[in-house]
Amino acid sequence: MRRIGVHVRSLRTPIIREGDDVARIVVDTLLDSLREDRYELMDRDVLAITESLVARAQGNYVTLGEVEKDLKAKFPGEEIGVVFPILSRNRFFLILKAIARAFSRVYLLLSYPYDEVGNPIMDMEQMDEAGINPGTDFLTEEDYHRLLGAGFKHPFTGINYIELYKSAAVNDNIVIGFANDPVAVLRFTQDVLAADIHSRARTKRLLRKAGARRVFSLDEICTASVNGDGYHPQFGLLGSNFAAEEKLKLFPRDGQAFVESVQERVKILTGKHVEVMIYGDGAFKDPVAKIWELADPVVAPAYTSGLDGTTNEIKLKYLADSELSGLPKGEIDEAMKRRIKEKKTALVGQMVAQGTTPRRLTDLLGSLADLSSGSGDKGTPVVLIQGYFDDYSVDDSAGSLTSAAREVI
């Protein structure tokens, strides 16, 4: 009986620099690992590459000056409202610095008590004790400090984000307010940049309905090259990251061509048909701080066609406890395998699929890859996921050891 199901290997690559042939480096790293670590590559294995590796090789960067120039092209006035950015040094602080340089007055509206992905801006119990209603109340900076104090720090980073975002100002030109209705910013200005990620379409719709004059979102800034440098035609500044004091790294461009080239190269060199994806932030939620980690617009900006779609599974423990529970011990395994092979393609709503939510494959695989590789100093920006598409009915042992290794055992 096969003992290993899903197997995840994080692969170390050399440090990638701008201009490197990252597709070749990824495939070479995989081939070196296969040879040195003595395992087999199988059809439908998944090769996941972090987006930063691809973007760095492409040189997909923008300077704050280029961001500033594009903002001025979109908003020709002197004042701007910015609504619902996430609380992040990495993701938004540099963007805010460019905004503050571009306009004489910035009205920054923060959602509370959490940002869009769960980062807290205040203590919820303090908010309740102060009688603040997050559904209706607009708070000024003065209200915030009077009712809640001035010292709230993020539980993980230890940063006071009010102070951090105020420090991006030019001549004290950032005014911060707190509300959960984006329309509240229109009391100050009719030109608004929606800085939220996953809720940006609704935010823009509400602002336009309320009469805003000019409304853009971060995915509409730097969608074309400003001075011959980086851009992203679909996501703009969404998915960007701090790269240097005056530079942001954007999401990689032409991702589809990249994943298909890696897939083709692996096929030529190994004869195996692997699936390939570029992944960014995983879509998981911290159980303690309640922070949802997905600060990128999508988990997987590019992937090969075999990763399209959602999971289609049945719940083994339900079968074991119900319709197969009366079988003799020696028969239940084979009966379970037959039941899996007979499953229909659409199981949504059936009790046998209860608890197996049909999530997108790329969200699950990208999150698995992100958790496996980490974002620190592990040096493993490529992740090989094996056996993901196998179920309990697949009973071969290939993929865990090479034939030579099995003979030694």
Fold and architecture overview:
With 409 residues, this protein is an alpha/beta fold. It folds into 2 domains: 7-59 and 254-311 and 359-408, CofE-like (60s Ribosomal Protein L30, Chain: A, 2-Layer Sandwich); 61-249, 3-Layer(aba) Sandwich (Rossmann fold). 33% of the residues lie in helices and 14% in strands. It has 13 helices and 14 strands. The protein has helices spanning 22-37, 51-58, 64-74, 89-102, 124-129, 141-148, 161-166, 200-209, 255-270, 316-321, 329-341, 361-373, 403-408; strands at 7-11, 46-50, 61-63, 79-83, 105-110, 139-140, 174-178, 191-194, 214-217, 241-244, 247-249, 275-279, 302-303, 382-386. The strands form 3 sheets. Strands 6-7-5-4-8-9 form a 6-stranded mixed sheet. Helix 3 crosses helix 4. It is globular. Residues 345-349, 351-355 and 398-409 have low confidence and may be disordered.
Task: List its salient traits.
60s Ribosomal Protein L30, Chain: A, 409 residues, single chain, Rossmann fold, globular, 14% strand, alpha/beta, 2 domains
The CATH class of the largest domain is Alpha Beta
User: CATH architecture of the largest domain, please?
Assistant: 3-Layer(aba) Sandwich
Radius of gyration: 25 Å
Helix proportion of residues, in percent? 25-40%
- Number of DSSP strand runs: 14
| Share in β-strands | 5-15%
Q: Low-confidence parts, pLDDT < 50 over ≥5 residues? A: 345-349, 351-355, 398-409
Helix segment tally: 13
Number of separate domains: 2
CATH topology of the largest domain: Rossmann fold
Q: N-to-C SSE series? A: EHEHEHEHEHEHHEEHEEEHEEHHHEH
What's the end-to-end separation, in Å? 16 Å
Structural class: alpha/beta
